[in-house]
Amino acid sequence: MTALLEAEGIAKHYPVRQGLIRAKTIGTVRAVDGVSFSVRKGETLALVGESGCGKSTTARLVLRLIEPSAGHVRFEGVDITTLDRAALRAFRRRAQIVFQDPYASLNPRLTVAETLREPLEVHGIGDGRSRKARVEELLSLVGLAPYHAARYGHEFSGGQRQRIGIARALAAGPDLVVCDEPVSALDVSIQAQVVNLLRDLQRRLGLAYLFIAHDLAVVKHVADRVAVMYLGRIVEVAEKNELFRNPRHPYTRALLAAIPHPDPTRRGRIVPLGGDLPSPLNPPSGCRFRTRCPFAQEICAKEDPPLEDGVACHFRDELPPAGLDFSGGLAPNAARRLALFAEAGRRQGTL
Ligand code: ADP
Ligand code: MG
User: Fold this and answer.
1) Residue 18 pLDDT grade (very low, low, confident, very high; cuts 50, 70, 90)
2) Which residues crowd ion ligand 2, with CB under 5 Å?
3) Measured in angstroms, how far is the CA atom of residue 102 from the centroid of ligand 1?
4) Ligand 1, atom 7: nearest CA belongs to which residue?
5) Which mutation among 14, 251, 281 tests ligand 1's pocket best, with the greatest number of atoms within 8 A of CB?
6) Among 172-176, 248-252, 337-341, where is mean pLDDT lowest?
7) What string of DSSP letters covers 30-73?
8) What pLDDT score was predicted for residue 267?
9) Which of the listed residues 96, 104, 107, 297 has the most CB atoms within 10 Å of its CB?
10) How many domains does the chain have?
């Protein structure tokens, strides 16, 4: 089956200039640096990683809100990086975005009805009467009432504003919605409601989501598959349950370790992650994660590990099992595993 959305080696590099007159380029921010993934019809691919790792830039690239420095994005097999204006408009009808900040993303001068009518007008969908009916339908879809149509954005709570943002994204009847941290700006008590709404809408409308989050706990509720991003790259991609059960990349393990586990005996058994995210202006040589990786060896500074078999790590088949649980017995390359494990432990001061 062909994917609904396919990103292949996409990159976004921003030149850094110094001086106002005759500015010189002194470096390049590698916000996204060679990312490939696909989203199937009706599924949710979650994209997770720390703040600054390139998630929003990826979101903008796949919707061609910004132009890529390299790579291709295909929607139903058609390369959207070369579409003309008319074709791009047709694509936008099918692929929409919900932004993180429901305060900033709504125009304060428009009523809800005007906000929701806008995409219908832009895409020439329906006439005055049918648009009015569609606005009411959209409000009901996202759990708002018909009388909300006449109100302005500032009259709503954060959760309600995000419902309006979702209704606007759905107005033209998309197949794909990119959700860029849609609940991160909301109160924790509201987050679950909006996540549940998104899941419900997915079931009813057959939507595919590229769901961006920095919080794995949220991802656990929404994702079918998960792609983990680090410093402009994807380091691991797996089916959700598989990823939570058996995280393979050291970075994925560290992210999972940051979620409090309900079973205290299982807490803290995954090697925690230290240090800060390095700058995408000057990423480490070789594997970008090596400066924070407890398992890093010489080769990691020299060679950039490709994403193979879902994991970008030179030692993906040799690391100790996730959770440092040896109860299942030792694998044939146990000596090497133990050496890695011991060294990691020494470095972390846990052995
Ligand atoms: P995330 O959404 O994961 O927090 P972003 O995609 O917003 O990350 O940003 C990734 C990196 O690219 C960050 O270091 C950010 O500062 C940088 N960046 C984003 N947009 C620009 C831009 N227009 N110019 C220069 N650097 C940018
Ligand atoms: Mg972001």
Assistant:
1) confident
2) 55-56
3) 20
4) 56
5) 14
6) 337-341
7) EEEEEEEEEE-TT-EEEEE--TTSSHHHHHHHHTTSS--SEEEE
8) 47
9) 96
10) 1
What 3-state class would DSSP assign to 125? coil
Looking at ligand 1, which atom is closest to the CA of residue 32? 10
C-alpha to C-alpha distance for 46 and 217, rounded to whole angstroms: 12
In a domain, 245, yes or no: no
Range of the domain at 45: 3-234
Give me the pLDDT at residue 21, please: 79
% pLDDT > 70, the chain: 86
Cα–Cα nearest to 35, from 15, 8, 14: 8
Q: What is the mean pLDDT of residues 201-224?
A: 93
Whether the Cβ atoms of residue 86 and residue 123 lie closer than 8 Å to each other: no
Ligand 1 proximity of 100 Cβ (cutoff 6 Å): no
- 174 assigned to some structural domain: yes
Q: Say which CATH number the domain at 82 has.
A: 3.40.50.300
pLDDT higher than 70, residue 130:
yes
| Mean pLDDT value across residues 287-311 | 93
Identify whether 282 is part of a domain.
no
Contact status, residue 79 vs residue 236, Cβ threshold 8 Å: no
Q: Is residue 306 part of a domain?
A: no
Instruction: Tell me if 51 CB under 6 Å of ligand 1.
Output: yes
Ligand 1 proximity of 283 Cβ (cutoff 6 Å)? no
Give the position of tokens 């595919």. 208
pLDDT exceeds 90 at position 103: no
Which atom of ligand 1 is the closest one to the Cα of 29? 26
- Ligand 1 center–CA 57 separation, angstroms: 6
Q: Is 181 helix (H, G, I), strand (E, B) or coil?
A: coil
Distances (CA, A) of 264 to 99, 261, 276: 36, 7, 27
* Dihedral over Cα of 219, 224, 228, 233: its sign: negative
pTM (two decimals): 0.88
